[in-house]
């Protein structure tokens, strides 16, 4: 669990960076089996005027840019439960493990609304761990949305 918290704190730093850019504060970090950070990103949907600019998608694209096809031996850390789009990308890129902070009851694709990552009808099901630094991950989102009211 210690490693999970360590990398989630890095994802939280990315989420804070997103908030500073007036983005929904979600951060992601992709780590290999040797505990090397391969990629990290913050949401960039507003900054890039692209609704697909989710942090998870950005780190997956960075990792695949060097010619890898699949990411079996990688762990994705993300502060918020992946949406349906990101869950689909996780399945398609064959990420081995997903660790997320807080659930997303409005758009979650990894347990809250849908269970894409655990759907046995799909050809890949990563290990999923939820609730790592859940309070901190939830609070950054609450603070951001409260500042908008």
Report a brief summary of the structure.
With 149 residues, the protein is of the alpha/beta class. 36% of the residues lie in helices and 19% in strands.
Which geometry do the CA atoms define?
globular
> How much of the sequence is in beta strands?
15-25%
- Total E-strand runs: 5
Helix content: 25-40%
Instruction: Report the span from N to C terminus.
Output: 35 Å
Biggest sheet record:
5 strands, mixed
Number of helices: 4
Query: Order of strands across the biggest sheet?
Result: 2-1-3-4-5
Average pLDDT figure: 96
Low-confidence stretches: none
Cα gyration radius (Å): 14 Å
> Which structural class should the secondary elements be placed in?
alpha/beta
The H-and-E topology, N to C, reads as HEEHEHEEH
Verbal overview:
With 149 residues, the chain is an alpha/beta fold. Helices cover 36% and strands 19% of the residues. It contains four helices and five strands. A five-stranded mixed beta sheet has the order 2-1-3-4-5. Helix 1 (2-20) runs parallel beside helix 4 and helix 2 runs parallel beside helix 3. It is globular, with a radius of gyration of 14 Å. The mean pLDDT is 96.
Short key terms for the protein model shown above:
single chain; 149 residues; alpha/beta; five-stranded mixed beta sheet; 4 helices; 5 strands
